[in-house]
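Task 17 of the worksheet. Students: predict the tertiary structure of the chain below and write it out as structure tokens. Keep your answer in the requested format; marks are given for formatting as well as content.
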Amino acid sequence: MSFDTDLTSDVSDELFWDPKVDNTAVAVSADNGKITLRGTVGSLREKREAQKAAQRVFGVISVDNKLQVKLMNDDKRADAELRGDVLQALMLDSLVPKTVDVKVEDAFVTLTGTANWQYQRDEADFVASNIVGTLDVFDEIEIEHPTPDRGDVKESIKKAFKRNAALDAEDLHVSTDNGTVTVKGTVGSWAEHDEAIDAAWAAPGVTKVRDDLTVAY
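Model answer:
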């Protein structure tokens, strides 16, 4: 059997193994290690969990998530009601700043406003994606804080890479430009990829991270 055939089988098995994903309506295909997911799922959270499951599989280089969220009739919500529930959930989460606002149109949620850190944007996105009735979340929250010296940002990220036991810092390269950080290099898994990107976002003054990493096995 070919590599892609084996990989398709492994991803399908991982989706079946994950209790958060109903794999019965998910089709998996592979092309030189690039996975495509097609089909329907019952929630945005399930769509995202399916992508995470595929990325966990050894040999997967990238995942093109084309799954469609199809809500059951009982899960469909009026936009005003959905916005109220998202706002309430954000307000109750201590990691989300009060400067974050929400717009909803046809069950598509857009997050607006400002935050000081990327983890706050990630948390708001995660909270909104868990609300029943949400078809998708668009994160337009802007990061606002003073931009430190570019050399300080670069060195702090490189030190963070070296401290992290999950990363091989020698294979990672960082450049900075007015708050934008570019991370290049090769990592051995998606878990390592995510560790590197999270470390870059954690540096003070970073407003954007360009992901030029390659996952290679």
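Marker's comment: The chain has a mean pLDDT of 93. The first strand starts at residue 26 and ends at 31.
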